[in-house]
Structures
1.
Amino acid sequence: MNNFEYKNPTKIIFGKDTIGKLTNEIPADAKVLMLYGGGSIKKNGVYEQVKTALAKTDLIEFGGIPANPEYAVLMDALKVIKEEKITYLLAVGGGSVIDGTKFLAAAAEYEGAEPWEMLKNKERPTKGMPFGTVLTLPATGSEMNSGLVITREETKEKLAMGGPALFPTFSILDPLVITSIPERQLVNGVTDAFTHVLEQYMTYPAGGLLQDRFAESILQTLIEVGPKVIKDPTDYEAGANFMWSCTMALNGLIQQGVPGDWAIHMMGHELTALFGIDHARTLAVVAPSHYKYNFEAKKEKLAQYAERVWNVTEGSIDDKAYAGIEKTEAFFHQLGIKTKLSEYTDKFEGTAEEIAKRFTDRGWLGLGERQALTPQDAEKIVKMAY
Amino acid sequence: MNNFEYKNPTKIIFGKDTIGKLTNEIPADAKVLMLYGGGSIKKNGVYEQVKTALAKTDLIEFGGIPANPEYAVLMDALKVIKEEKITYLLAVGGGSVIDGTKFLAAAAEYEGAEPWEMLKNKERPTKGMPFGTVLTLPATGSEMNSGLVITREETKEKLAMGGPALFPTFSILDPLVITSIPERQLVNGVTDAFTHVLEQYMTYPAGGLLQDRFAESILQTLIEVGPKVIKDPTDYEAGANFMWSCTMALNGLIQQGVPGDWAIHMMGHELTALFGIDHARTLAVVAPSHYKYNFEAKKEKLAQYAERVWNVTEGSIDDKAYAGIEKTEAFFHQLGIKTKLSEYTDKFEGTAEEIAKRFTDRGWLGLGERQALTPQDAEKIVKMAY
């Protein structure tokens, strides 16, 4: 096990009918900017619940943050924050709204002229405007971590950053929001959380025995409740476990003391930036090829995963490891996710080369848990994924 | 799953050779009282490491906090805190030293004349003197929670309390401390952590699917590494996983959204108070009888535990549940723990009745996950445990 430092100060308020607790979480003298997405919260009752809870709060709204939060839109929100002398941010939405809000929390305190520089320089902000969240879409774990991903249409880029000042002060997780989430987004949520765990687990045996078992616990729970939630979003027990699993998948706990991969995300982000494919689906596209390409480096963990998560008991290490990849792909198919890039686009020519070039240009010369995956390797993996 | 609120702000610094990081964690202008136990830290090098890290800090020492931290001793420490105008506490020790330090953090800000009243009234302090810990004995989880247990020799009482102000600001967990821990204390540590998980898990199926799996993960890890650590405390991988498992067993995570039992602890505390039996050993004494006595109420969970943790695949629910109890007792025996009270004392007469009377006098009329265990039930369980 590697040395680690771990602190997660976010207060989680979890359970049915908890959105009203907002009243107690936001300081009475705060001037709040409430941020949300395309307006689904106005159809599912969340908007009304938030407004009721904050009836006495000095509050301005900023809607329209798109999936894959767009830098230009966020810069409009930043203007509002400065002009209106906002002191507290409230994200009401899924990972995109929360990531965008986090970026604004950092941008509001940023002293440079162009906040995009924070992303390019992978800065780790130590100060930020306080913010809370009301989660409406379980998936990314952003509600209990300090990371964010921002997209910039102008340059077709999607970049990540994070920092100790970017944990939400609180996050409200009411599983009842799940009842009105479209199936496509539920499928994406299960897939996103599942892949988050894989990225932190599917490396090499690193002596994090408890971390491994926690990761397997989340995977097993998602396998158990994911299909149930998709079939019946009103199944509260399944929904609550789905929601808590998504949070635990990426709140930092399971990554402590063990190596992380994250190359699947790096390649997946490019596919979203280039083709607009849903984030979760890009992960499902890249993961099987990534594991096949890096089979030798990952086969012990793949075999452990096959044994413990999928009850594969027969065969050699190689057999079990390969079965683990097949089970993963079959699970994505069971959810209704296509796992070949050719099923999403026919304009593939030059894509893999472009991604390799971008990685090279950014200096990303060694990705993965051993920093050994070159841009050329990524090019081959993306081609395998077509 | 039940609604819950969860926040754990303690910063964990984990890994080999991390005690030196103390320098950065304690404010430069703090006046520190360093608290420790019987002096083992002066033999194993921890004392020197702490003093070196805090060479430039204004620091006073208070040693001699006994196992089962004694109220009278803590009141002596409180005098020092007040006389010396201490502003920061540093616990260097195991659960007893940390619990004692937590109590002092609350007592330093308590406005009444007799801090014991906080325990009697089960107060939940919202203010306390800041404190950090250097953990020298993995077991109780006190390094990452806000609970404490204090003993009072004068009245032969042992009472628990906790509150949001009583989380350590930081805790340093260096698994290298394990190499010098006596076998008896390692055995106690494994048993203590194992029982902590059981108390939060062995109730009834409550829809906390992920919480169940996390609990099982900790139990499985303790079963895997516990015997290894006892056999060879220099096995770093086993020791690190043991240490992290003890912390995760009682840092609040696995109890969120699910019922807790804790009746084993309530009965065990009395056995420590009355006979001076090591805390962990009282838990191993009470647990098997408790589970047999409450078999019908707990058998679904006992069977799930037997299946998932001990790979018991044959038989009915009742068969599996009973096998789960037997496996648990066998595990304690494997560790070298005696599980019958008669193996610890022959002055048993009247003990069970005395414990029942104490519970009645304190108004503890319904313990356990359904608040259904009466003092008379406790009397019978303690008799079964003899």
2.
Amino acid sequence: MVRADKIILAASICMSLLTTSAMAMSKPVTIEDQGSFMAGGTVVTSPGTYDGTKPMSHDGETLHGDHAYVFYQKPVKAHKNSMVFLHGYGQSSKTWESTPDGRDGFQNIFLEKGYKTYLVDEPRRGKAGRSTVPTTISAQPDDQLWFNTFRIGQWPNYYENAAVPKDKESLDQFFREMTPDTGSFNEQVVADAMAAVFEKSGDGVLVTHSAGGGPGWATAMRTAKVRGIIALEPGTFPFPQGEVPATEATSSPFPASGEAVPMDEFMKLTKIPIVVYFGDNIPTEPTENWGQDNWRVRLKLAKKWEAVMKKYGGDVTVVSLPDIGIKGNTHFMMADLNNEQVADAMEKWMKKKGLAE
Amino acid sequence: MVRADKIILAASICMSLLTTSAMAMSKPVTIEDQGSFMAGGTVVTSPGTYDGTKPMSHDGETLHGDHAYVFYQKPVKAHKNSMVFLHGYGQSSKTWESTPDGRDGFQNIFLEKGYKTYLVDEPRRGKAGRSTVPTTISAQPDDQLWFNTFRIGQWPNYYENAAVPKDKESLDQFFREMTPDTGSFNEQVVADAMAAVFEKSGDGVLVTHSAGGGPGWATAMRTAKVRGIIALEPGTFPFPQGEVPATEATSSPFPASGEAVPMDEFMKLTKIPIVVYFGDNIPTEPTENWGQDNWRVRLKLAKKWEAVMKKYGGDVTVVSLPDIGIKGNTHFMMADLNNEQVADAMEKWMKKKGLAE
């Protein structure tokens, strides 16, 4: 009977481990400090003179807007450099939290690795919703546009090798991560706020995703506290004025164009190590599969940018994950089933560049 | 010299303690699990048939919206009951995080007390921004309207006894917590999503603030997993049909009206313990100070509601904090300088009602 008890006990421990690995942090983390703050932003004032007897007149009232929102956590015995995470289009800091199927996202994975994490909602998005400019939100259904553009598959089919959970509930959670702009997107407004984030985080590695790539490059041009950049499938790249490549034709509704910046700004990027990761299912030849073609032209632009950066002494590596044996990644590699492998590749690069101190 | 060294050491420890109490968690917390998820919501579909060759047509595409966003943390050896926090008007879950001057908010305070915390962004707010209905966001400056309505003072003057930091930077952080609706506020939509939050949190105490009060009462009518409610200055109260008091005149632009609900729904609230807290600087007589008068009529309505609830067997206590020796509280008692005292009063009540197990 002792033997049966032991088997039951062992089975029960296994069940508990399975539950833990599927739905919870892989190990407890002791947090020394955590909290949130707003960074950067501006203040606008209504015309007229404030009159405290007229609550709804708004004459002379102020609005504080265009700041970033940041949630930070500091584990005990943390590495010196912070990790600052900036989401992409239509997303918020949710991008880096639990995956759609409830596994650890990069927030937990890097905490578990001992890094201070700073998760940002960019200005005019999420909990940083207060904008100095008005806007209209359409509530236009467009889930399928993003399913294809994010290279999960061609609706309603998943790519066979896609490293994502293919159950209905996980897809439901994924679609609900989308959240609208509460004011028009402005790369300079985002970069200004991000520079203020780094004043609070201190020296760190900036991790950007997708449309966060553009303001990410601009952030590193504003502050030397960005010690390195990890860009996950960035949407665009900055080139010196006069060296922006022609925009390549694509079947995607979102063309990939380089951005022109003054040479002295461009040169700032050559002073820090940068790695760019692209996932799987990105073709090399033009295709009518516009979800894939969107990334074909971006990966091609990335390689042109890598060449120009290297010409000016930059330290840039553009990595296609399948080339290093990490397969099936969608545009959301931080949430894919193999996200721990992706995180390991990132940390390996950080260690090589002296950023994991 | 030893003596001088000791003094320097003691001074250094004091400085360190001061820094810690001002800017960090009061003690490290070991987190067994943390993460985020979306709860509830609905799906709408565009008319027409989806055509994968036309990415921008949107015919037959879906939109997943009207869910709540939740960030949860589970400390080791946690109490059985969860604590679920629902913000008020113009706010997000930021309400419960770090205070404007960087001290622990209720998120950290209750984690440190060993509670599982669930911080919610209601549907159509913050990171739960995806709405099934369109909207327009005006970017109308109105900081001063809220400064007065939130009983911090009469702009530009703070109430002398206001338990808030009175430096410019803290006020800047406070104003930036405001974030707009990304779809019209709908109490039933919020309550539906909140009931789904409790399916994930399990049995717990619901803590509501201000305009979160209305959907909070409605949540407890939907699920028995709400084991008790702590309502911080709720904006409204539900009465049995036919027993809603007349709306009292007020100099505030926001009248306080009771809501009529069917008797069987009302009766559900009489089955759980409820405490309602109001802060300081709430007058008993009508006043042209509309920021204060806004709360005079609400506190009066709360007391009428308490009487009706008791008539039907309910367990409700309406507490004015100054009456129990907690002074100077604004509408944001979870962030005021004495917020630990407020949290202690809440926990004392929870223990008395068997909710702190």
